Hints:
- The chain is mainly alpha-helical.
- It has two domains: 2-66, no CATH class; 71-123, Arc Repressor Mutant, subunit A.
- Helix content is 71%, strand content 0%.
- It is built from seven helices and no strands.
- It is elongated.
Amino acid sequence: MARRGVPPDAAAAVLDRFTEVGLVNDAAFATAWVDSRHRGKGLAKRALSAELRRRGVDDATVREAVEQVSADDEEAAARALVERKLRTMTNVPPEAKVRRLVAMLGRKGFSHGLALSVVRDCLAPD
């Protein structure tokens, strides 16, 4: 509102009223954001936390929101990302596949250990 030239006291009054009627709710926003970005983009807890902090959500609310993503959920998301990406990597040497896939998962917020484990599992011969 400040960018639009709304006086600070008027902005505060409007935000207070919005909070009273439930239109401004950081916890609900954070929960919805985590669900959407984890399910849609396959982001891990670390990336989700960073995104919420950049949007001004406090640390306690961020922690509470990302707790809804379990370790199994993260592993499943990483596996799905790797399997989808592997379909486009038919002519890539094995060492490059590992490097690229682990880097991709790192950019999505997954730990190096989980990324390497998932990539190795997905590349292992059946």
